[in-house]
Design brief:
Three copies of one chain form a homotrimer. Chain A is an alpha+beta fold and 158 residues long. Chain A is 30% helix and 44% strand. Chains A and B meet through helix 1 and strand 3 of A and helix 1, strand 3, strand 4, strand 5 and strand 6 of B.
């Protein structure tokens, strides 16, 4: 590639990588299985930490874990922020802060915060998540939460 | 355009589009009428959903709706996240999650969540919002909220 | 520079500037002194407003202020949103909304909101923050907050 093309490629790679981070959040919030599946390689790993069980290894186990998480926590709202992305050729790393509000089947309305660390790879020209690790900072049930509107809606179908 | 120029144009278009999403949030939070007006075409539509009334058709109706919203909810804090932007020539689409805290004249301090779906067009070289639709996920008044500092301040003038 | 190179440079500058905003948030949340120090010039200024004292002038005073803030508020979670970035040659300006949750040694769990206005410069080819100003919108202690998991963890070390 020329220098110009290499600089463009790096910018476009960053856009693809940031989109993977956004799509993880939106696919979990919407229960969008197709979008979620498209983020991973067959051999990717999702490690949400000991609060959420052993690492989920392989795309099928990741998808099965999503079903388990949705069953326990039917409503999720992820808001990703402060991504720091470092691209090195065909691999990349990102650290992204999470602000999250969920309605859990056991704990009810709950505020959640943490940090995601992602390792990405580009294979056959496509960036996907190779390893996502989550560090939970807090899981805080909210007392006296009551929704005046919308809270009984199904996950958004956009 | 050359391929290089086309790739640059797409990246610059994304930056413009993401700025429209940011400016919608900041203009509503600051009551910045000039910034808000600049986001729309004369024939643009803002549809906030049935909780907020019929769709507001045309820039003048959108601006009138903003005045009504500010009168009912004088303080708003929008935080946009997880934008997924798809650009197709002179049109584009984006889905962006909302985390929002407001002080409503009737409900008081209230947590709000939802999803915006935007349709953009580029006319005469400038990207603007053609249609913005909002899906409210919850409107949850906060019990026992008390601000130790700053909450009586006017909307930020930046 | 050619036009192409100038357009690429502006896009890359925006990426560097947005990274400074993200790194401020992540370095404060993680107590990452090296990351925080790297954001400023020797003569940079951090003005958090009257609630947080006089402006901190010079990188050493900024770093000393961080130690004071961490001592009073050992846990911070900053989520930056809605950045509006304007680049003009070797200087730039950004306005970015803040959603923040902290655990304060005096007030306990507290929701914080505000707006950062940044002035950046590029010196010797590197963008850094020349002046950061903060407008506090609210500091609201949360009643009845209790964390079921993770809240006693140390700041994240990524």
């Amino acid at each position: 590639m020329t220098t110009i093309e290499a600089r463009l490629d790096k910018i476009e790679s960053r856009i693809e990588i940031e989109e993977l981070v956004s799509k993880y959040a939106q696919s979990f919030d919407r229960h969008d299985r197709d979008m979620l599946r498209g983020l991973w390689f067959e051999d990717s790993v999702l490690n949400l930490g000991s609060n959420f069980g052993e690492p989920f290894k392989g795309i099928d186990n990741i998808m099965a874990a999503a079903e388990t998480l949705w069953a326990k926590t039917p409503k999720m709202h992820h808001w990703m922020a402060n991504s720091i992305v470092v691209i090195d050729g065909e691999t990349a790393r990102a650290e992204t802060a999470l602000d999250c509000f969920v309605i859990d089947s056991e704990d009810g309305p709950t505020q959640v915060g943490g940090l995601y660390t992602d390792h990405f790879e580009r294979r056959e020209g496509v960036w996907k998540i190779k390893l996502r690790e989550f560090d939970l900072h807090y899981w805080a049930p909210v007392s006296g939460w009551s929704a005046a509107a919308g809270a009984d809606a199904e996950p958004a179908k956009a």
